[in-house]
Amino acid sequence: MSSYAYLLEGLTIRRVLAVTAVCAVASAAVVWLFSNTYPDLLVSALCVGYTSMLLFTLAGNIRQAAFPQEAMQVAAVVVGSCLGTIVAGLVKQRTIAQMFSERLAGVLITMGLGIGVGCVVVATLILREKHSRDQARFHRGESERHRLEKNLLEAKLQLMQAQVEPHFLFNTLANVQHLVETDPPEASRMLESLIQYLRAALPQMRESSTHLGRELEMARAFLDIHRIRMGTRLGYAIEVPEALRERTFPPMMLITLVENAVKHGVDPCCETGRITIRAEESGGRLRVSVEDTGEGIRPKKGGGVGLANIRERLKALYGTSASLVVEERQPHGVVASIEVPAAPGA
Amino acid sequence: MSAPLRSPGAERGRVSAVIADDEPLLRAQLRSRLARLWPDLAVVHEMENGKDIDRVLEAHSPSLFFLDIHMPGVNGLDAARAIAGRAHVVFVTAFDQYAVEAFERGAIDYVLKPFNEERLALTCERLRARLSERPPRLEELVESIAARLGGPGSEHLKWIKASVGNHVRLIPVEEVLFFQSDEKYTRVVTGESEALIRKPIRELLDELDPVRFWQIHRATIVNVDHIAAVRRGLKDQAEISLRGRDETLVVSRAFTHLFKQM
Lengths: 346, 262
Known about the structure:
The structure holds two protein chains of two kinds. Chain A contains ten helices and seven strands.
């Protein structure tokens, strides 16, 4: 029994009181139409009102998809008014036959009035509910928008802060310090790469997009530094057609993928590893990928933080028309690729 | 353990040391600096990471380890754990603010990369004075630093591997809205895509972070971070709507208590 209690949900004391009040007022307003006394009319009105209310509540709670809920509720009021009028007649100890012969006029008027008043009440209720639903949807939309804005802001902030990892900087400088003593030309090459990397990584206020060429140079400088630091373990290749270097591309995304490839891909698996950066354009889409031959992603190991940042920023910049996909490479390693709508550089 | 084999360097009364750093140039640099500052110190072994500490201790019985904190595989903190007081330890780091503070508080020897000649000389001097004493116990300090630096991380699933065509796609779990069993597969649904995996709901439940992933139905696990609203539904069930997706999920009776108001 209790499992059907939801059918009566919304049948509150407030609703009962409201229906009672409407019946009292409506009876008072139309009592001059009838030969009946006010109390007699009120009994009829309450029978019609309560029956309609009960059916209206049921109609609002039944889960079905065949008819819109509003239609069900209006139908409930029509049926309720007819049923309620008959109930009122029974309460007054008249037979059904009587109701549909000598008292037919009164019965029809009661039914009509019930339907009329009921529909006005239902329309008011439905409109009010719709309004509050709209309001709620609006608030939900607002909070979703706020959430997206907050995420974007956080992503931007993180971008501004984490451009140069201190670890990377100091370790690189330690290498330079050693090379200055042992292999000055190599030291100078490493410093040059570091300067190039820093120039790309520490620009003024960063625009929302740069061109692919600049991001590639930054990645190259970063990989050059790591190639010296990791000895013979790291090899890399950049396979990007010259024509694509002018394409617009959001900043600091490629370098995140390259960093991941070094840090989570090649670095932990203590042999040699190779990183390949590719770009291709087809069907108006620019796809830039970073592939490593490392140990691959272990399902329980983290490393998606930089990726979440990229996703947020792609969503903010391109909506649903950009994507970041991470895939396993055969026989081992990972390919991460970013796809954006192709746009020639400004 | 058998009687430690004395390495040739140690036999002549010199102090023997091991250097562990994943970058070859930095090992060479420390070695050459130490040769200059501490001629009696013999670097008897070099390591790329902290693997096989027992074997190194047995083969070289060094009295001193220089351990880089960040090394792939077995890092410096893990190596210090393995040494477990059987040799003195000097930590080497490029930038770990918290670790440095902890070292200062715990009076533990450490050096920063790039090396500062004076600082390295001071460390060598202190070590010389301390070598005759028993190596200090580092467990507590190492654990606190390890916890702070992230350590081995939790054992929860962070990536879902799903076949899409010929490729295996890697989906970070935080992007998954929900998992739902679909006959013999499990659907993995994100805001942008959908994939099928073979791992059943039951197994996923054991491996996912229970704070974020809740079972709401025999066949469904939802990521609570993506829930937009929960509504009362048919019978004693509830209905969940998700951010960025029209599909709603049913919370079966057995799980509605998860969403009861506090």
